[in-house]
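seq:
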Amino acid sequence: MQEADWPAELFEVLCARGISQICHVPDSGHGRLIKLCEARNDMSVVTLTTEEEGVGLLAGAWLGGKRGALLIQSSGVGNIINALALPAACRMPLLVIVSMRGEWGEGNPWQLPMGLGTPKVLEAMGVTLFRADSADAVVPALDAAAGTAFNTNCSVAVLLSQRLIGAKEF
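struct:
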């Protein structure tokens, strides 16, 4: 685990970029960021039952004049594939922050296939990728991704590597 408080730095970027809607499927890789968002009175945080709900929720937020972000784990990327057609067809921004599994030091064999496939799957669906492998890469990656998503009305994902987050012990 990195010593820097990169979740707090991610939170500051979200605030600076006017993000007021956060949706997520509970994930320990996003745990601190979720808590920071929940503590903010002007930020709505919605816990999803499945990842693809977040795509529709953020499309509705955008239509209502709000900016949002979807927080998911790489194992949930497969659940949003069909839903990614909505922001693409309607030229709406979608900002996704993905905590990666199936990479550096992974101990769960079930996480390997989707972890390895996540970048390819997202790129195949037209999602622009930014990656943060270290604490000092987090702010530039999210800031660039948010700028790209909201300035060009396209889908963008930031991949937070398992090297950054840390491998789970089993």
